[in-house]
Specification:
This protein is mainly α. Helix 9 packs antiparallel against helix 10.
């Protein structure tokens, strides 16, 4: 069965596991592998049933994890959290695995807006690994959602004291700085976060906003240009880049960026207006 599964012969493998299950031999394991086969075939509902039945016959960490992962994919975070809480009743779970279960369960409860249960699991995870910057960041997000600003700030700062490269904690501290009217501080924190992990569109958006507010465009222009090269083409993001290039006096670059925008959307009003401004300033420079 496993050989067939690895070879991609999921239906044949499933037949073997179904026969094994009907014989009464190791029903929990047979159902688990039937679930794996159904999952590979895209039969998600059947896979969920297989994992749940496997747990009834013989609870296993793998079945709990696969079942919860499918529920998360379907954005059923409440149900996923409940499945993972059941996994916590298993014995002989290593500290590392126990930590990951508490962490994932906390994340699911947080997405489900059950902040009390989320905090419970984050604190359990922290008891297992006090030096986890990821959990300090998650607690910060929870406190931020609850409006507990001072506690959120301490949590994000605690995360950074454990890992100076925690881009999420830096980005969230920038959010707090923005809420307090500190555009310069937010700009610098966002830039530092994006230097570590550029793939954060929300941070890019806020960085551009801060750049305009403090009238400092160079860092934002560089990071937005790098982001544009690695992300799907977005006319609004290109428009932000063109505006930054214009404010830096890089008229030729700004004009090329505007041309890209208009090639995708010939009626983009912002790009049309910016092209007029670029032409005006270019004419003045020639004069």
């Amino acid at each position: 069965g496993e050989i067939l599964f690895k070879a991609g012969e999921f239906n044949l493998a499933k037949n073997i596991y179904r026969t094994l299950f009907q014989s009464g031999e190791r029903p929990g394991l047979s159902l688990y592998w039937m679930g794996r086969c159904n999952e590979q075939e895209g039969r998600i509902e059947d896979a969920e049933k297989n994992y749940e039945e496997s747990i009834v016959y013989q609870p296993s960490l793998e079945a709990f994890q696969r079942h919860a992962a499918l529920l998360i994919r379907k954005q059923k975070d409440h149900q996923a959290a409940e499945v993972m809480e059941r996994a916590l009743t298993l014995t002989d779970i290593s500290t590392d695995v126990l930590f990951e279960i508490h962490k994932a369960t906390g994340n699911c409860w947080l997405r489900s807006k059950n902040e009390k249960k989320a905090e419970h699991h984050y604190r359990k995870a922290l008891e297992l690994k006090p030096a986890s910057d990821a959990i300090h960041t998650s607690l910060g997000n929870l406190y931020l959602a609850q409006g507990r600003v001072d506690e959120a700030k301490r949590s994000f700062q605690g995360a950074l004291s454990l890992n100076v490269k925690n881009d999420r904690a830096l980005a969230q501290l920038a959010t707090l700085a923005l809420s307090q009217g500190d555009a310069r501080g937010a700009h610098d924190l966002l830039a530092e976060s994006l230097e570590i992990n550029l793939q954060n569109p929300q941070a890019i958006y806020h960085l551009v906003k801060c750049a305009y507010e403090i009238k400092s465009y160079a860092t934002a222009a560089r990071l937005v240009q790098e982001y544009v090269q690695s992300a799907p083409i977005n006319t609004n993001l290109l428009y932000s880049l063109a505006g930054l290039q214009f404010h830096l006096g890089r008229l030729r670059d700004a004009k090329l960026t505007v041309q890209k925008i208009l090639a995708m959307d010939s009626n983009h009003l912002g790009a049309l207006d910016l092209r007029k401004l670029i032409d005006q300033y270019s004419e003045r420079e020639r004069v």
